[in-house]
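Inverse folding, one chain.
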C-alpha cells in the first residue's frame, strides 16, 4: 500500500492496470484484483478526461419536434 501511495502521488493518472504493470516491473507479484481492492480501500481514483458525448457543437442548429401537438391515432 505504501508503494501504491507513493507512485500515485507521482502519477495520479495511473489506474489499476498501469499500477499493476508498475509493480510487476518493480519485481512484485500482484494481480489486478488485489491492486483494485487496495486502491478502493485507500480511496484512490485516477484522474482522467471524462467523455463529452452529450455536448452539442458550437453553431449546431436545434431542429423542432414536428409531431408536437399532433394526435397519433393509427400507424402511418
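Residues assigned per position:
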Amino acid at each position: 500500500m505504501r508503494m501504491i501511495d507513493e507512485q500515485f502521488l507521482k502519477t495520479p493518472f495511473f489506474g489499476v492496470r498501469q499500477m499493476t504493470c508498475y509493480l510487476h516491473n518493480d519485481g512484485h507479484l500482484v494481480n489486478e484484483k488485489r491492486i483494485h481492492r487496495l486502491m478502493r480501500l485507500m480511496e484512490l481514483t485516477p484522474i482522467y478526461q471524462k467523455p463529452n458525448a452529450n455536448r452539442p457543437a458550437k453553431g449546431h442548429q436545434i431542429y423542432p419536434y414536428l409531431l408536437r401537438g399532433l394526435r397519433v391515432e393509427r400507424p402511418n
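The chain has a mean pLDDT of 92. The first helix runs from residue 2 to 10.
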